[in-house]
Amino acid sequence: MKTLYDKLWEEHHVTQLESGESLLYIDRHYLHEVTSPQAFEGLSKKNLVPWRLEANIATPDHNVPTIRGNDFNSEQIKDEISKIQVVELDKNCNTFGIKQFDIKSSKQGIVHVIGPELGYTLPGMTIVCGDSHTSTHGALGCLAMGIGTSEVEHVLATQCLKVSKLKNMLVKFEGTPADNVSSKDIVLYFIGLIGTAGGTGYAIEFSGNYIDEISIESRMTICNMAIEAGAKVGLIAPDKTTIEYVREKSFLDKDTLEKAEDYWSDLNTDDGANFDNEIIIDVSKIKPQVTWGTSPEMVVNYDDEIPTALNVSEDNRKNIELARNYMGIHNESKLSDLVFDKVFIGSCTNSRIEDLRQAAEVVKGKTVADNITEAIVVPGSGMVKEQAEMEGLDEVFKNAGFIWRDPGCSMCLGMNPDQLKPYERCASTSNRNFEGRQGYLGRTHLMSPIMAAYTAINGTVGEPS
Amino acid sequence: MKSNSEGLIIDGVVSYIDRDNIDTDQIIPTEYLKSIKKFGYEDYLFDGWRYKDDGKLGVKKEERDINKDFILNNKLYSDSKILLARDNFGCGSSREHAVWALRDFGIKAVIASSFGDIFYNNCFKNGVLPIKLEKNQINELFNIANKEVIRFSIDLQKRIILTSNKDEINFEVDDYLINRIIYGLDDIDITLKEKNKISNFEKSRLETRPWIFVNE
C-alpha cells in the first residue's frame, strides 16, 4: 500500500546514484527573473543547453512594477537594477529558446498563478521552480517543490533533480468551517499548531472532507503555505474537482486528455497506506486567523489576546519579546487595538479570482478607512485581472478607494516599488510576516482576503458581519 | 577552509545569534536578490540587523550606518568562520543568495538545532557546512559562547567539533552531502554520467504519459 507521495516518487524515479540519492525526472520547470540568471550563466559556462526545452516556462514576476498600463516593456522599468534582471530573463529565454510570458504578455503573472491557469501544471507531474512557493502546484496532485539556483541549473542541464526521499505526513481537515473562514485561515491555523519547523523533512498530503469540498484555488492557498510549516512539498490527490479544473484550462486534445484523466482518476493514496505522522483537524472550530508576530506560526484567532512573554514557555519567551518589539506591540492586548496603515491583497497565496471575489464582496459599497493610506489589489496574472474586470470587481475596489494594479508579486516581498515604509502596519494576504519582508522595518499581519478587505474598511482587524 | 593531512578542517571564531527561525529574508533581504551575479554578497549578510539604515544593492558597508551592537560588527567576531544559531535556521525563501552571503562573508559552518530544508540543501552546493545538534547541546554552546569568545575546530571527515576546552562533539551528516564539500563535486557532471538512463526513462515516459510532453 502506497501513499500519493510514494506513487509520484516511484513514477519519476530514474535511478539511484552511488551516493544513495535518487534522480527524479522533472516534468515541468518554471523560471522567473530572480533565481535564474546565475543558473543560465552556469549553463553557458559549461557549454550546455536545456535538456528538454519544452519543459521550461518562464515569466517575470518578482521585480515587475504593478503600475504599467498598456504597451509597457522591460526597458521601461525605472529601477535600473530591477530592469537588468527582467531584461536578463528576456535575453536568456531568447538565447536558449525558452517559452516566456514576458512583461508585455497578457498572460504574464505570478509564476504559481499562471502555471495552473494556463494548463501547464497537470496532475501527477513533478514540478520545480527556484521559488519556495512551488509547493502551490501540489494542489493539483503534483510533486512540486522549491529549489535553489544550483538546482535550477541542474534541472536545466539534466531534466532531473537529485534528491532523497522525504518523510510523509497526512493532515486531514474534517468538518465545515464557519462563515468568513477560508482556506487561508485553515492553513494559518495549521501552521500555528505544528510550527514553522513542524513539517521540516516532510511531504505533507492534505485530505479530509473539507479538502474534498473546496475549489482548486482554495487548495492552492493551502499547498502554497506548506513551506511556511517547513514542508517543501504539500500535495492533494486529484479528484473530480481537479479534473474539471484541468479540463477547463487544458490545451490538450480530447484523446490525450481522456487518456490522462484515466490515469489521474486512480492517482491517490491507497487505503491503509502508512504515513510517518498523521494529524486530524476539526475545521468547524477555526476562527479567522491573523498573525501578530514575525513568523507565520505567530498566529491567533483574530479576537484573541496577543501572546506576551509572561504567558509562554521559557524557551519561547525571547522569540515573543523580539517579535512584539519589532511589530510595535506594547500595551495593546488584542489585534483590534492596532491601527493599520496599508492593505495588500495579492501574492501567490491569495491573488486568484476567487480571492478577489471574496474581498470584493466585503468592500462592495463601502469606503476604505481614513487611517489606511494605501490599499492595493494586485491580481495574480493578466488572466485573473481580465476576468475580474469582466465581472466588474475592479470597479468595486476602485469605488471603495482601493488601487487596482497590474499583475506581479508586488508587496508580498517588496522587490518592486510596492513596499511598506518603516513602521507601517499592513494587513496582507501574502505568506510571510518576516522582519522587513514587505519593506525595511515594515510590519506585516497575514490574513485572508476577507479579513484584509474588512481591515481596509474598518481600519482595524475585525470580522465582517 | 584549509586542508591538512587528516582532511578538511574548519577552524575559527564562533559567532552566535540567539534566535529561533532565522529566515533567509534575515540572512539576506530581498533587495540584494536583484543582483545577477553569484558572488559579492558579503556586505549584505544579515543586513537588517547589521546596519541601522535601509541598504541598496551596490552600496558598500563603509557607506552604511553600522549597528555596533550586532555581533558580526564586533572586531572579535568579524572574521568568524562558524555561526551558532538555534532552531529552524534558514527557513522561508529558497534564495540561494542566503548561502552565497554567508559564504562570501567567510562563514564555513552553521551550527543549529534544525534547518529549513531548501537552505540545508543549498549549503552543500556552496561549500558551507550546516551542522545539526540536539537542542540541549545548542543550549550548552550558547552558555559558553555568551561568556567568552570561543573557537572551534571542525573536522569534516571525522564529523567532530573540537571546542576551545578540547571537548569533542560528534555530529552526523550524510556522506553524499559532506563529500560535496570535501571533494568539491560537481552535481551536473555526476548526473550527466547517467544521461543514457535519463534518455531511456524519458522515451518510455513519452509513451506512457504523452500529455507531459505536449505544449501549446
The CATH class label of the largest domain in chain A is Alpha Beta
Instruction: Find the CATH superfamily of the largest domain in chain B.
Output: Aconitase, domain 4
Number of strands of chain B: 8
Order of helices and strands of chain B: EEHHEHEHEHEEEHHH
Rg value of chain A:
21 Å
User: Which CATH C-level class of the largest domain in chain B is it?
Assistant: Alpha Beta
CATH topology of the largest domain in chain B: Aconitase, domain 4
Strand residue percentage of chain A: 15-25%
Overall pLDDT confidence of chain B: 95
What do we call the CATH homologous superfamily of the largest domain in chain A? Aconitase, domain 3
Question: What percent of residues of chain A adopt helix (DSSP H or I)?
Answer: 25-40%
Q: What's the number of helices of chain B?
A: 8
List keywords for this structure.
heterodimer, A: 465 residues, alpha/beta, Aconitase, Domain 2, 5-stranded parallel β-sheet, 15 helices, 16% strand, globular, B: 216 residues, Aconitase, domain 4, 8-stranded mixed β-sheet, 31% helix, disordered N terminus
